[in-house]
């Protein structure tokens, strides 16, 4: 017991240990070490198993079925948090502070966590009690609308967890759930490992022609920190390029060196596949390189298991299972996608022809032989610059992260009546770059919520993309002694451009939009006034509606008043000039046909694989299925090494399986 008491993960009480008026009870992120994971999670699993046993015993001994919320739903919420909260901490750390030891601990604990979760989700006594409460018309009417929604969702989720299965079917379902969980983790690990493995060093200044100063500064800094070139400078090099987003996008959009663009493009599309090669020009680490995994067989296995899972649950395909928790049906989602695709395709054709004509007009040698995929992004950016007299780098000096954050918080105060205050140092964080903030009621000053912001890319330990998730949610049942409710806490994670030298992070407008997007998700979680934990904040929001608040906030990135507040020159403090604002707004829809067609490709491929694809027809069958979709959604034939699906973590290692359409649906 003493060992567990000293374990910062095991001793966290996810809100129950805090006292009214004191700082929130949040994870001791920096104190949690890899060796704490196994004992803490083992204890959490044991506690959860003991609690579900106790709940089932009380139900069996009760003289009558539960007829109130407090009898069944509050105990279930407390039970679920015993396991989900500490495991959520471990999962988060794996995404932002990955290491071999943490992976080993995670992989060791994952099967017992899945087993315990299935034990809870498949509890027949609990399920019968919830169904009984729903069918007790008089009792159900006494519940609030939020409580009724929570009960209905829990009953639905129990069905989708296999509560109705018995015997060998239940055993098989549980085997599938465990294997899918492990495959998802392996898929994500393989993508991160491939992204980390790639590096390309340029030593000749001619090889980096066209790249903006900000990209060269970042590449020189990477050469110092990763490549051990202590004297690297933006002016003289050497410069190291990687597959993390700021580096990859800079090369793709600005490098005049066509061979460099091709190398980076091919590597990015081949991540976690048989075609991927690190192309390390100067290995940063002389030790034995890590064997890189191929996600192609994992994709086939994941799709096979999902189809089998759907059949066990009585559905025709896995897309139908996914749609059970969404607004759309398969038919309505595909109808929307086809409508957008049909409108986008001719627009994208016109855009590509305009890019080809522009490249030829500028005397590009590749224009005579035909532009390739690694050329289109470069020449599209040149065309945009010429059309609107606007360069991405013209905007970057005005979007310094500290000013962007301040302006974003001021907007939140105007829109929602909350004041955001920095609270760095009041709680532990998982990396020195991570910020911590309080969200207060603007009038009373009372706390409403808290959140972390992890803004910069760290390709050695942090997965790509951007996301928001909850640390804890608003809940009356989980309130600390003396408090009426536990307040929500979120974390926002981005992979933006880090500071270089004594300069702050200077963001692209796209990175600004991403920050506002994730803030929208966080606001939905944090500003809820609902005290019923299972449906508070982002909990049980239909998945194809969950992107609505995020995309709503993106719109303010083109609002003049907002841009004047967030856009302040990092050296002079001068606000964003009117002419730059006008050019930015005019260029907003540049390439929109191509952009929407690309989104349709992702979403239509996702639905095809989960609704109609039949696994077991050969190693390359899944890529052939994607290629068939591509005849309607892509204008240029894919290169042989295109294994985009092997990096499509959203649907194979995230929550978007048969749900990638949600972005367009919400928009």
TrEMBL record:
Cofactor binding note of this UniProt entry: Binds 1 zinc ion.
Domain Peptidase M3A/M3B catalytic: 254-667
GO terms, biological process: peptide metabolic process; proteolysis
Transmembrane regions: none
GO cellular component, one term: cytosol
EC number: 3.4.24.70
Domain of life: Eukaryota
Cofactor: Zn(2+)
Domain Oligopeptidase A N-terminal: 44-170
Catalyzed reactions: Hydrolysis of oligopeptides, with broad specificity. Gly or Ala commonly occur as P1 or P1' residues, but more distant residues are also important, as is shown by the fact that Z-Gly-Pro-Gly-|-Gly-Pro-Ala is cleaved, but not Z-(Gly)(5)
Keywords assigned by UniProt, alphabetized: Hydrolase, Metal-binding, Metalloprotease, Protease, Zinc
Molecular functions per Gene Ontology: metal ion binding; metalloendopeptidase activity
Family to which this protein belongs: Belongs to the peptidase M3 family.
Name the record gives this protein: oligopeptidase A
The organism's taxonomic lineage, starting at the top: Eukaryota, Viridiplantae, Chlorophyta, Mamiellophyceae, Mamiellales
């Amino acid at each position: 017991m003493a060992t567990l008491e000293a374990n910062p993960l095991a001793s966290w009480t996810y809100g129950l240990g805090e006292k009214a008026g004191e700082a929130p009870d949040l994870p001791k992120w920096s104190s949690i070490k890899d060796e704490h994971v196994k004992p803490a999670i083992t204890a959490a699993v044991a506690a959860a198993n003991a609690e579900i046993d106790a709940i089932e015993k009380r139900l069996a001994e009760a003289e009558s079925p539960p007829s109130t919320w407090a009898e069944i739903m509050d105990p279930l919420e407390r039970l679920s948090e015993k396991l989900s909260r500490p495991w959520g901490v471990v999962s988060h750390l794996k995404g932002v502070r990955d290491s071999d030891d943490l992976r080993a601990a995670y992989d060791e604990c994952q099967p017992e966590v899945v087993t315990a979760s299935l034990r809870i989700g498949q509890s027949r006594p609990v399920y019968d009690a919830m169904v009984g409460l729903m069918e007790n018309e008089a009792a159900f009417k006494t519940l609030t609308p939020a409580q009724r929604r929570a009960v209905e969702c829990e009953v639905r989720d129990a069905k989708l967890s296999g509560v109705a299965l018995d015997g060998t079917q239940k055993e098989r379902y549980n085997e599938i759930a465990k294997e899918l969980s492990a495959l998802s983790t392996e898929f994500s690990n393989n993508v991160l490992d491939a992204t980390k493995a790639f590096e390309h060093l340029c030593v000749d200044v001619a090889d980096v022609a066209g790249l903006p100063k900000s990209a060269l500064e970042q590449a020189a800094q990477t050469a110092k920190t990763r490549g051990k070139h202590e004297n690297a400078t933006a002016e003289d090099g050497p410069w190291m390029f990687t597959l993390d987003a700021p580096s990859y996008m800079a090369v793709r959009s600005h490098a005049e060196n066509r061979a460099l663009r091709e190398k980076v493009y091919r590597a990015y599309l081949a991540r976690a596949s048989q075609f991927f090669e690190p192309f390390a020009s100067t290995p940063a680490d002389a030790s034995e390189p890590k064997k890189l995994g191929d996600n192609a067989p994992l994709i086939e296995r994941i799709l096979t298991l999902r189809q089998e899972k759907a059949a066990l649950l009585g559905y025709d395909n896995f897309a139908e299972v996914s749609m059970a928790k969404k607004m759309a049906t398969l038919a309505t989602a595909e109808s929307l996608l086809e409508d957008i695709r049909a409108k986008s395709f001719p627009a994208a054709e016109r855009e590509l022809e305009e890019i080809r004509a522009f490249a030829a007009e500028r005397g590009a040698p590749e224009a005579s032989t035909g532009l390739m995929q690694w050329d289109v992004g470069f020449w599209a950016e040149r065309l945009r610059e010429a059309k609107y007299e606007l360069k991405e780098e013209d905007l970057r000096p005005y979007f310094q992260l500290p000013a962007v954050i301040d302006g974003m918080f001021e907007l939140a105060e105007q829109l929602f009546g909350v004041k955001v205050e920095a609270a760095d140092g009041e709680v532990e964080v998982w990396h020195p770059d991570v910020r911590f903030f309080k969200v207060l009621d603007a009038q009373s000053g009372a706390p409403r919520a808290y959140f972390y912001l992890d803004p910069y890319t760290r390709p050695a330990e942090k997965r790509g993309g951007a996301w928001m998730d909850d640390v804890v949610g608003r809940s009356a049942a989980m309130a600390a002694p003396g408090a009426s409710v536990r307040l929500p806490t979120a974390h926002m994670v981005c992979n933006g451009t880090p500071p270089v030298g004594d300069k702050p992070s200077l963001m692209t407008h796209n990175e600004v939009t991403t920050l506002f997007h994730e803030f929208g998700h966080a606001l939905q979680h944090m500003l809820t006034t609902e005290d019923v934990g299972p449906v508070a904040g982002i909990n049980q929001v239909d998945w194809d509606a969950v992107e609505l608040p995020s995309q709503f906030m993106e719109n303010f990135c083109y609002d003049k008043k907002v841009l004047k507040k967030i856009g302040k020159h990092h050296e002079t403090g001068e606000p964003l000039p009117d002419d730059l604002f006008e050019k930015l707004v005019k260029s907003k829809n540049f390439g929109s046909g191509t952009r929407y067609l690309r989104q349709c490709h992702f979403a239509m491929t996702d639905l095809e694989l989960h609704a109609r694809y039949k696994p077991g027809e050969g190693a390359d069958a899944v890529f052939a299925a994607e290629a068939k979709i591509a005849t309607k959604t892509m204008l240029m034939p894919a290169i042989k090494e295109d294994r985009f699906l092997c990096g499509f973590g959203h649907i194979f290692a995230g929550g978007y399986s048969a749900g990638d359409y949600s972005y367009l649906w919400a928009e």
